[in-house]
Structures are given as structure tokens and as C-alpha cells.
Amino acid sequence: MPTIKITTTQNINIEYEVANFSDRIAARLIDYFLFMIVYSISITIVALFIRDNYGQQGNETVGIITIVIWLALSVFYDLICELFLNGQSFGKRSLKIKVISLNGGRPTVGQYLLRWVFRIIDMGLSLGAAAVLCVAFTDNKQRIGDLVAGTSVVKTTPSHNFDNLVFGPPPEDYQSIFAEVTQLTDKDIVLIHDVVKNFNRTRNSLLVYKLAIKIKSFLNITYPSNINEYQFLEMILNDYNHFVGNTQYN
Q1: Mean of the per-residue pLDDT values for the chain?
Q2: What is the DSSP letter of 225?
Q3: Angstrom distances, CA of residue 124 to CA of 61, 68, 120, 131, 148
């Protein structure tokens, strides 16, 4: 399955699976179903209101309003949903897929507009054939609108194992120990993480000891005598995520 890498603000790459063709079709069918429900309710309300006030003479008005509502929903549904639901329609949200920019960020208004404009070719002029062919044969499963806008549709659940990430949301009840960790940088934390991970594989305690002493000296802190250097480095990682990484999840 093709994947797209997203780089977080802390320079961590997270891979997302590109949404497959069946997911996109299923999302579109759900959208159409919801679309018809909203349309039917709207028309019923309009018809009852007009006929209560104008009787049978309002039939022509009901017909005109029916067309207007249908066109408005057909034309603007996807654009409005993607703009205000962070790249998702209700169908996409139910299938856990969304539109993202290929640069890893949230698409801009301009990118959403390009996707929307080129839907005329993807879904309108070609009756969906252009979209089907492009999604089937492009690496990132993009329709023409995606190719022009630099976007793709991915599954919202990352394929990356978060247990291997350096940065992660700390537990809500976590009690920090060393506030001095804010003096460290992301690169420092990546180094500490790599040393800890290396120790788990090789049991090379010398690296752990040297790094712990260096961090202790740099931050000018002491740690309890009942913990070892490995536990100290784990505390540093947890505290850093609490003080600094926590801002990424609020």
C-alpha cells in the first residue's frame, strides 16, 4: 500500500497510508446518502411553508427552490466540508480518511479551491472516468484535482508504530521531575532516545553512563541516589515530552 510521509513540527516523520479506491468510493456513497437526506428534508420544509402560505399557486416556486437547493448542495458540499472539517467530508470522516497536502501540512484554502474547481473535470465532464483512471494509475492515488493542487487522500490512522517515536503525548497525570529539560533541544532528545534504544539492544552501559553524566553537568542537576543512569535518561525523555512535547497536543 502506498504511503505518504508527514513531518511534524518536531521533525518526526510519520507515515500515512494512501486511501485506496474502495475507501474513496464508499465515502462518496455515504456523502450521497447524507446529501439526499438533507435535500429531502429541505425540500419538504420549503414545500410545506410555501403551500401553507400560497396554496397551489406556490408549486412553481417550490420547483425553482428545489433546483436552487439541489445545485447549491451539489456544487459547494465538498468545498465547504473540506474547508471547515479539516479536509474531510462526512463520508471521509466516517471512513477515517482525509485530504492532506503532499508537503505534510494541512492544505491551504487555495489547494482546497483547486481540488474543487477540477472536480468539474474529474466528476463532471468525464462523468467520473477521469477521476477513476487517475486514482488507479497514480502513485499517490490522486485524481486530477489532487495532482494540480498537490494533495492526496490518506487514512487518518498513521501506519507508523508510535511506540518507536521519540516524542509522544505524556500521560495526563504525569508528574515531572526536572524542569531544566527545557534547556535541551529536539536534537538532544533524539540523541538520548537513540542511546536508550541502543542500550536495550546491546546492553552497552558505557554510552548510557557517559551521556547521563554529560546531561547532568549541562543541566546542573542531581538525581536521586536510588535511580541509575538509564532511569535518569528515561526521566529526561519523559520530562521533555511533558514540558515541551505537551504543547503539540493541546
Answers
A1: 79
A2: T
A3: 27, 18, 5, 10, 17
Mean pLDDT value of segment 3-7: 69
Determine if residue 229 is left, alpha or beta; phi over 0 gives left, psi from -120 to 50 gives alpha, anything else beta.
Answer: alpha
DSSP characters over 47-103: HHHHHHHHGGGGHHHHHHHHHHHHHHHHHHHHHHHHHHTTS--HHHHHTTEEEEETT
Q: Which helix (H) or strand (E) holds 112?
A: helix 109-117
In the sheet where 3-7 sits, what is the strand order? Answer: 3-7, 13-18, 151-158, 97-101
Specify the DSSP element, H or E, that contains 13: strand 13-18
Cβ(156)–Cβ(233) below 8 Å: no
Domain ranges of the chain: 3-158, 166-248
Question: What whole-number distance in Å separates Cα of residue 100 and Cα of residue 156?
Answer: 10
- CA–CA gap between residue 72 and residue 94 (Å, rounded): 23
Rounded Cα distance between 75 and 67, Å, is 12
Residue with the three cell numbers 464508499:
26
Q: What is the pLDDT of residues 30-77, one digit of tens each?
A: 998 988 888 788 778 777 777 666 655 556 677 777 778 778 887 888
Top mean pLDDT of 80-94, 113-127, 131-145, 164-178 is at 80-94
Exposed, middle or buried, 181 (CB in 10 Å: 0-12/13-18/19+)?
A: buried
Burial of 109 (0-12, 13-18, 19+ CB in 10 A): exposed
C-alpha cell of 229? Answer: 543512569
What's the grid cell of residue 177?
Answer: 521531575
